[in-house]
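Entry under discussion copied across for reference:
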Amino acid sequence: LPVYTTADGRRWLDPECSQPLPVPPAPQQRLDRDTVAQLVRLTVQAPGSYLPHDDQSTFPPKEWERTPTARDLRLLPHPVAQDGSIGAYEASQHTLRLDTELGLVRRPGR
């Protein structure tokens, strides 16, 4: 699931940072069906090996642990700079970014 992270640590579903990453509203302990469906529509298919298994920034929020499907998603964080430019996710072996025309773009690491 591509997410966009601002300098203050907040995570968003869109590059314009207008849709926050959802959490279940109190007192509910799960995301509702429509929210899960929206998240699934935003996902990008990729091999599990693309994201390191030990990078906490790629794990779903703890608030999703009681929501089937959402708890199993992996996040693809994209840093958002102050000027609004979107950076790529840098893993040890490659760089990943979501391109509006090309989809998921993978480049070898440094």
